[in-house]
């Protein structure tokens, strides 16, 4: 039943009063009444003093069984008001049960070297008290309240402190002798406080302890070395909240030296070793546990019920006791947390180093770890485990209550974990995860993940001692032990070993040839990149997944031997012949299962085989099989085939089908090749088969036709010119160079000069005009190893009619005679040929605003007479020939006028086609008929017409490219006079 009034009365009775600070840096002096040392006063200047009762030793005499007034001595003081007050302690203060309550920022300091002793210091939230005063040796200062206590005394403080809440910052300063100690012993309890070190020499780390539920030790960028971290439970936490400077935490383990041994006297228990002088010798004894020190020493150099005889050699006796005590101290443990686990607090770099003095030392870490730094193990053994769920102690049977199927899981992480110097890292039961890159060197051993029968270590929260055994769990208990998630990359060098237990390992391994990696039945390793191991042993049902989903394909190289009975999970892309791979450079043994998951598209039907595993040599008991003896890939099932030391996926049915198809294809290819050769022989062009004589005769005939066709083009270009209504005369000069080649004859070059004289006149006003042209073409032809000359003269008459809309029609009739000479080697042939031409064209002129467009289309018929001549003894006959030349063209021009001067630039394109018909037996050489076909071509022309009065000058540049004319260039000049 609550009694608020009584509680309030008790609280008020414990208070001496409140100091109301009124200004910053106001000094309040605290002094003891010299006549009455049980009273004191606090005063600032002329203000009224606050009387503060202190410890009163005389009250002890008034204590009874019912009341104890001595417990009430001393009263508390409350400090309030403006921040920045100063409490100056002028005398040693023993406030007894009285405490100091600070609701404002304050500084507490001695006048010289005074001390303060009392019921504790309470600092309000968001307030800081700068504490510069020491407390006496043997006293323990209690710090409470969520505010901050900044300790800035000078020299060695021999008192202790217990921190129950808030923040304590140790920033003790050196005295003139260079001495510095913030407190003799520091306790952190309740789980709420944080202890911050401003330097590494503030306290002796081995005098720091974490009490019930612990709290945080912030190394604050400093390095600290512990023999062991004294703690009660998993509430202890070591952190580095400083983000700009790393901290190093070193654990060395506890060892006992000869100087630490205690020598006892007979009759007094509690010593390590006893000496008994008898009959000129000295015997050494150890008191047995639970027996009395008052029992007589044995005199027969033997042990008794109470005493253990250690021998008569002092050094040997000391060595025995030292070994025994150090053996008891081999096991140390830390159940707290390393690194910051709270997301709202900074987690600076904290490196943890385990460097024990003895190689057989063991460190048990069972609280968890989140290091933004490295864990280094440079000797001994480190065990990471979870802890049994705490239960009430069985007091009747004096034992702790542990249920093997009721444990708390732990998580551990670090940037890097290094294990060296023959040391061992074991991750035991109930570790949910371990994250970090691990480097093992110099015969180090990594046991990662629980394995059945593995040693399990426990720390007693009741006694602090560590015990280890190898329990045999039933299936129910084993099922409660979680699989550990192991992430990171592992490096193994200098004969190091990796043993994977009940774990899902995701990462890569880079191991030297001398290293060894073993997977237990509950191990599963998923590679994150190409990996290399030394010797690899796989227990039954252990699994290796060679690559992650949606990640690159990987290769696992076993540089040493492969043994055991494992499962390999492959991802393949048969369509691109990509796959995870296993390469064994040593000897392969055991029975291994391959499970294939193809992630590619449908493979093309081929005889390609996909390599999965390659071995250098194998034992007689080595076997590799596919799960279900096949792999489903696209349409087909693929089997495993061994080719020497290589194991590949293939489809025997597809291979047989393709081999049959290849056989048939080879036969068909052979048949087609034979037919191709026949066809090739049959399809050789005439130009490749004929002699020089035949080629010269064909080339001459082609050159003759080219001259006639060129006259057609010149006549068409004349039809496109402006005529007006006057009569006119003109002369024209053309120079041409052309190269010709076809399937019927070989290449030749023709150079021609064309001269022309023409006249034209209008017959009436209806647009009828008559004209005539006489022309001569002189050509020099370079045949293959032969030469030719042609002089062709032609007379042409024509008539045109044009309406007012620009439409015109023209008819022409021409007759020509050619004188030809051919020279082959030293033989010459002369002959003549007559050509009759008849043509008809139609054209139209469009005025398109700024430019004029003229078009023309028509055809010309040519009849060439037959010719007979002899060339180097061969009878040549070119038969008479009827040839039609189809033509069309267009010209675009623009005319500018300056007084009587006209200038008209133009561009034109003309097409002609005399290639529509193949003339078989057109040329006969010694009565052997040869075929002939003539040119089809396009001409591109740029021209310029200039008129001044009745005179005009026309120039044009023409480029021709056609079926038989590889290139032809022509330059023409036309001068005329209009009547």
UniProtKB/TrEMBL annotation:
Q: Which InterPro entries match?
A: Autotransporte_beta, Autotransporte_beta_dom_sf, Autotransporter_pectin_lyase_C, Bact_Autotransporter_VF, OM_autotransptr_brl_dom, Pectin_lyase_fold/virulence, Peptidase_S6, Pertactin_central
Q: Name one GO biological process term.
A: proteolysis
> What are the protein's UniProt keywords?
Coiled coil, Hydrolase, Protease, Secreted, Signal
| Listed GO MF terms | serine-type endopeptidase activity
- GO CC annotation: extracellular region; outer membrane
- The record places domain Autotransporter at 722-979
Annotated EC: 3.4.21.72
Is Hydrolase included in the keywords of this UniProt record? yes
Keyword Signal assigned: yes
A Pfam entry, by short name: Pertactin
Q: Subcellular location, in the record's words? A: Secreted
Identify the enzyme class: hydrolase
Q: Which residues lie in coiled coils?
A: 651-684
What's the protein name?
Immunoglobulin A1 protease autotransporter
**From what organism does this protein derive?**
Avibacterium paragallinarum (Haemophilus gallinarum)
């Amino acid at each position: 039943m609550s009694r608020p009034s009584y509680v309030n009365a008790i609280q008020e009775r414990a208070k001496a009063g409140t100091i109301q600070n009124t200004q910053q840096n106001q000094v309040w002096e605290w002094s003891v009444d010299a006549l009455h040392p049980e009273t004191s006063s606090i005063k600032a200047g002329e203000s009224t003093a606050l009387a503060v009762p202190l410890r009163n030793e005389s009250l002890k005499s008034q204590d009874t069984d019912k009341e104890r007034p001595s417990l009430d001595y001393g009263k508390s003081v409350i400090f309030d008001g403006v921040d920045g007050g100063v409490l100056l302690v002028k005398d040693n203060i023993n406030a007894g049960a009285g405490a100091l309550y600070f609701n404002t920022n304050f500084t507490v300091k001695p006048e010289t070297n005074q001390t303060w002793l009392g019921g504790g210091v309470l600092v309000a939230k968001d307030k800081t008290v700068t504490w510069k005063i020491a407390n006496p040796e043997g006293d323990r200062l209690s710090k409470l309240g969520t505010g901050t206590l900044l300790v800035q005394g000078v020299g060695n403080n021999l008192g202790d402190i217990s921190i129950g809440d808030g923040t304590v910052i140790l920033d003790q300063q050196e005295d003139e002798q260079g001495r510095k100690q913030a407190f003799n012993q520091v306790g952190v309890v309740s789980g709420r406080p944080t202890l911050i070190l401003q330097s590494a020499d503030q306290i002796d780390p081995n005098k720091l302890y974490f009490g019930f539920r612990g709290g945080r030790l912030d190394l604050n960028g400093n390095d600290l070395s512990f023999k062991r971290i004294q703690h009660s439970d998993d509430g202890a936490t070591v952190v580095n909240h400083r983000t700009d400077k790393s901290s190093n935490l070193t654990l060395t383990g506890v060892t006992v030296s000869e100087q630490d041994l205690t020598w006892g006297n007979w009759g007094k228990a509690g010593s390590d070793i006893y000496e008994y002088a008898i009959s000129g010798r000295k015997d050494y004894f150890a008191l047995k546990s639970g027996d009395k020190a008052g029992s007589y020493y044995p005199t027969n150099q033997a042990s008794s019920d109470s005493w253990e005889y250690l021998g008569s050699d002092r050094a040997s006796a000391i060595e025995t006791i030292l070994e025994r005590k150090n053996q008891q101290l081999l096991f140390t443990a830390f159940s707290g947390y390393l690194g910051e686990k709270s997301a709202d607090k900074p987690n600076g770099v904290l490196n943890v180093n385990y460097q024990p003095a003895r190689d057989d030392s063991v460190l048990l870490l069972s609280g968890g770890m989140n290091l933004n730094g490295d864990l280094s193990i440079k000797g001994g053994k480190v065990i990471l485990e979870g802890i049994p769920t705490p239960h009430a102690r069985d007091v009747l049977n004096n034992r702790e209550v542990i249920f093997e199927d009721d444990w708390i899981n732990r998580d551990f992480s670090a940037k890097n974990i290094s294990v060296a110097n023959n040391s061992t890292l074991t991750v035991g039961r109930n570790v949910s995860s371990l994250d970090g890159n691990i480097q093992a060197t110099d015969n180090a051993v990594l046991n990662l993940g629980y394995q059945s029968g593995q040693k399990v270590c426990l720390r007693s929260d009741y006694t602090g001692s560590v015990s280890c055994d190898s329990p045999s769990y039933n299936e129910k208990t084993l099922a409660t032990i979680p699989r550990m998630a192991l992430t990171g990359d592992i490096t193994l060098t200098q004969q190091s070993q990796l043993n994977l237990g009940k774990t899902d390992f995701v990462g890569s391994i880079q191991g030297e040839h001398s290293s060894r990696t073993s997977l237990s039945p509950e191990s599963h390793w998923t590679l994150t990149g190409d990996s290399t191991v030394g010797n690899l042993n796989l227990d039954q049902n252990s699994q290796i997944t060679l690559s992650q989903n949606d990640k690159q394909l990987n290769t696992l190289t076993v540089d040493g031997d492969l043994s055991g009975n494992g499962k390999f999970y492959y991802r393949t892309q048969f369509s691109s012949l990509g796959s995870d791979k296993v390469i064994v450079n040593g000897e392969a043994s055991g029975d291994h299962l391959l499970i294939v998951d193809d992630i590619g598209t449908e493979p093309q039907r081929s005889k390609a085989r996909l390599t999965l595993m390659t071995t250098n040599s194998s034992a007689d008991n080595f076997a590799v099989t596919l799960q279900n003896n096949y792999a489903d890939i696209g349409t087909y099932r693929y089997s495993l085939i061994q080719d020497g030391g290589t194991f590949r996926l293939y489809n025997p049915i597809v291979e047989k089908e393709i081999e049959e198809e290849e056989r048939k294809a080879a036969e068909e290819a052979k048949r087609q090749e034979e037919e191709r050769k026949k066809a090739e022989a049959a399809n050789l062009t005439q130009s490749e088969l004929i002699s020089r004589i035949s080629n010269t005769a064909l080339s001459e005939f082609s050159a003759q036709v080219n001259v006639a066709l060129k006259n057609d083009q010149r006549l068409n270009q004349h039809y496109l010119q402006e005529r007006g209504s006057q009569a006119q005369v003109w002369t024209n000069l053309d120079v041409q160079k052309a190269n010709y080649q076809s399937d019927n004859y070989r290449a030749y070059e023709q150079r021609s000069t064309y001269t022309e004289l023409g006249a034209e006149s209008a017959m009436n006003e209806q647009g009828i005009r008559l004209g005539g042209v006489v022309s001569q073409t002189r050509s020099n032809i370079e045949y293959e190893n032969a030469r030719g000359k042609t002089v062709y003269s032609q007379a042409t008459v024509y008539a045109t009619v044009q309406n007012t809309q620009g439409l015109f029609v023209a008819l022409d009739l021409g007759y020509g005679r050619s004188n030809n000479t051919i020279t082959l080697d030293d033989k010459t042939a002369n002959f003549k040929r007559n050509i009759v031409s008849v043509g008809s064209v139609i054209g139209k002129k469009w005025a398109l605003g700024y430019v004029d467009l003229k078009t023309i289309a028509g055809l010309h018929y040519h009849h060439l007479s037959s010719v007979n001549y002899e060339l180097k003894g061969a009878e040549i006959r070119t038969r008479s020939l009827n040839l039609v030349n189809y033509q069309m063209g267009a010209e675009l021009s623009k005319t500018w006028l300056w007084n009587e001067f006209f200038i008209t630039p133009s561009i034109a394109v003309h097409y002609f086609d005399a290639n529509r018909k193949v003339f078989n037996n057109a040329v006969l050489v010694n009565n052997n008929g040869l075929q002939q076909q003539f040119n089809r071509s396009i001409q591109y022309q740029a021209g310029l017409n200039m008129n001044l009065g009745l005179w005009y000058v026309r120039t044009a540049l023409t480029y021709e490219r056609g079926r038989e004319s590889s290139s032809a260039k022509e330059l023409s000049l036309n001068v005329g006079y209009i009547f």
